[in-house]
Amino acid sequence: MTRVGPGTMTGRAGPGTGATMATITIWHNPACSTSRKVLAALCDAGREPRVVEYLKTPPSAEDIRAVVAMTRQPASALLRGKEPAARDAGLTAPGVSEERLIAAMAADPVLIERPVVILDNRAVLCRPAEKVAEILG
What we know:
single chain, 137 residues, alpha/beta, Glutaredoxin, 5 helices, 31% helix, globular
């Protein structure tokens, strides 16, 4: 398993930074049981994912925008809406723009829902954890 954190070659949580076409990347929070289950499922499937602890190595707005496009869902799908900071900033209200959501997640990565698994040009928010099957396919 490859761990990426501050001071690494890439230094970013970008969707494809430092990864080859067959590399699976997981935006991971080790404190989250769902994230740990998804990571275990990837490893159990014989994959060696590139693990990005996104709270330590936050993705840029550009990276988040790219992952949102790969999910084929709106940015609000990647927003951790139950975070008090999301509600306090009005990010859970209807009609919040994609750019405002992306900028907020880039500025405060705790607002990013997890885990996100990325392979080639696909990304899946693996909530519930069983959604990892969509990317393992």
